[in-house]
Amino acid sequence: xxxxxxxxxRIEVILCYPxxxxxLFYRLANALWRRHFNLMGRFISNAGKILTxxxxxxxxxxxxxxxxxxxxGVVIGETSAIGDDVTLYQGVTLGGTTLEKGKRHPTLGExxxxxxxxxxxxxxxxxxxxxxxxxxxxxxxxxxxxxMVGIPAKIVMGQKKQKIGxxxxxxxxxxxxxDPIFQSFENLRxxxxxxxxxxxxxxxxxxxxxxxxxxxxxxxxxxxxxSGT
Length: 229
What we know:
The chain is of the alpha/beta class. Helices cover about 35% and strands about 15% of the residues.
């Protein structure tokens, strides 16, 4: 209710929100999984995926008040760990990058927001209050309070103190932030302009030197000059 202004009542959430339904399926499947009823846990998890479009492995560890908005296409892997008050949008993947057993999925701290279509891959850590922009691909650890965008994702806003209760829809901050790829191209363009200006200065200097040498040669070859007397 607090993170979706479209929710008008609790009964609407209970009846109409697939993200809420997916969490209910997960809690039951996870309870079975922790008691080593693995097949039954996977069966309940699969039923939840079919009914909600959200796939949560029963082995994942999920804290309180996870909000999955819209939700279709969300995938949460087996060894994922999610802190309290995390928000995930549609198409998010918390995936693994190896076939090895053990920890292979991300760990998300408290109050993290992951925008639609974002991919957070591998046994990395996403610090508390971090923001992952839509369609970002995160392959490295994310500092506390950082905002990540791009492929691969880069920090566009460093460790920023977030007020308690701050919420940024889709992980996109309200401030105007430059695309890090665009910034890189702008830096390259600036350096090229500087180099081009320096080259022009050197060319002008060489022309003056050549012009002075030519003038000197002309004077040496002129009748009546010191060399011709």
